[in-house]
Structure formats: structure tokens, C-alpha cells
Amino acid sequence: MLTGKQKRFLRSKAHHLNPIFQVGKGGVNENMVRQINEALEVRELIKVSILQNCDEDKDSVAEQLVEGCDAELVQIIGHTIVLYKESRENKEIVLP
């Protein structure tokens, strides 16, 4: 579980990132979860954008991604979800 201080730190790091995944009409599927998991292993911190044609609400999308990828939810801002997962191989982010 992330502390408030760690979340603040990660939010500041995520500020400059662009979303690399988009959740659209199909919602969250297995393939997407697998790809996001691989991206988290490489980058540790990613943004996922929720398109307006997505049928599910952003909270349930975030919940599915967190559970599917075993990641931490840093923040939901607007239609963007910020996820963090400590990398096994490429650990670069050192949490405060």
C-alpha cells in the first residue's frame, strides 16, 4: 500500500507522462491487462486514458486494472488513471 507521501511523489513524476493506453468501448479485457502489466514492468509508472465512448465508469475501470495487474492506483484525474507497480527487473523509481 502506498502512503500519501509516496502517492504525492508518484503524482509529480506522472505529471509529465502521456497516456500510453486507452480504454474504449470494449472496456477492460485480458489482452489489455497483459499489455499494461508488461508496460508497468518496463516503466513502473504509466497513465491510462479512458475514452468518452467507454461504457464503464472510470472507478470500475481503475479497479479492474489494479486487480488485473496487481498494481497500485496512484490517482484518477479527469479521464486519466495513473498506475504504479514496482518493477522486478528494471527498478528505477525510488519511493520516499
Automatic annotation (TrEMBL):
Listed GO MF terms: RNA binding
Domain CRM, first and last residues per copy: 1-96
Top-level taxon in the UniProt lineage: Bacteria
Keyword terms of this UniProt record: RNA-binding
Keyword Protease included in the entry's annotation: no
Transmembrane segments: none
Keyword Zinc among UniProt keywords: no
Protein name, UniProt field: Ribosome assembly RNA-binding protein YhbY
Taxonomic lineage of the native organism: Bacteria, Bacillati, Bacillota, Bacilli, Bacillales
